[in-house]
Amino acid sequence: MTTSPIFTRAIRTASFAAAALVLGLQSIPTGVLAQEAPVRQGQTALPGQDRTATRIILVEWRIKKGREDEFLDYWSTRATIEDRTGLVGEFLSRVEDQNQFPWMVWNLDPAWTTFVNVGVWRNGADFQQQIGRFIDNSRPPLAFEADRRRRVLVAPERWRIGATPLISSDHPGVR
Q: What is the pLDDT of residues 144-159, one digit of tens each?
C-alpha cells in the first residue's frame, strides 16, 4: 500500500496532537494522573451536575509503513473486548487530509503511520477490568508496530452533548 506525501503529512500532523497530549500528560507527576473526579463509582452525570465517572482512553499507535492492513486486522479481530457493558464507544481513526482541512496543525513522524484510538468508558473501573489489567508495558512492540504505543486515561472536566447520535453499530470487520 503506497501513501501519498499529502496523506502521510496529514497523518503526521493529526497524530502529533494526540502524541503531544500523551507526552504532556506523561510529564505530570503520577499522583496527579491518578486523581479521580469526585464522583461515586458507576455514577454518571445528570443534568446540572459538574462531574462524571466517564473516562476516555487515548491510544496512539505507531505502525510500520506497509503494515497498516495487518494492524487493522489485528485491532478488528484480535484486540477485542469480551464484555462491553461498560464501553460507551471506541473509535480507531486515521488522520484526514491536511489539504482538505488546512487548520490541522499536528506534526507526525514520517517514519510510521499513526492511528489514534479513542475509547469512551462508563468509568475507570470498567476500563481497568476489561482492558487495563492486561496491559504490560514491559512487553515489546508487536511485529507491525514501529514504536511502542502510548496511552493515557483522562477524566472529562467539561463536555457538550450534541443532537446527533453516535454510530449505532460495529464496523462490519470488527468482532
A: 999 999 999 999 999 9
